[in-house]
Design goal:
4-stranded antiparallel β-sheet, Rubrerythrin, domain 2, mainly beta, 51 residues
Length: 51
Amino acid sequence: MSQDNMIKLECSVCKHTNYFSTKNKKTLKNRLEMKKFCRHCKKHVTHKETK
């Protein structure tokens, strides 16, 4: 994976960085939000893209 396309996904509740993913920055201009499982909260919550 290319490092310039990598993004970090942070839990919106507990603020832990749980996931790493890629995105096409040419087509997606705004920040990515996904509902994923947080190991620290032990439930499905929204994860937002960080810098």
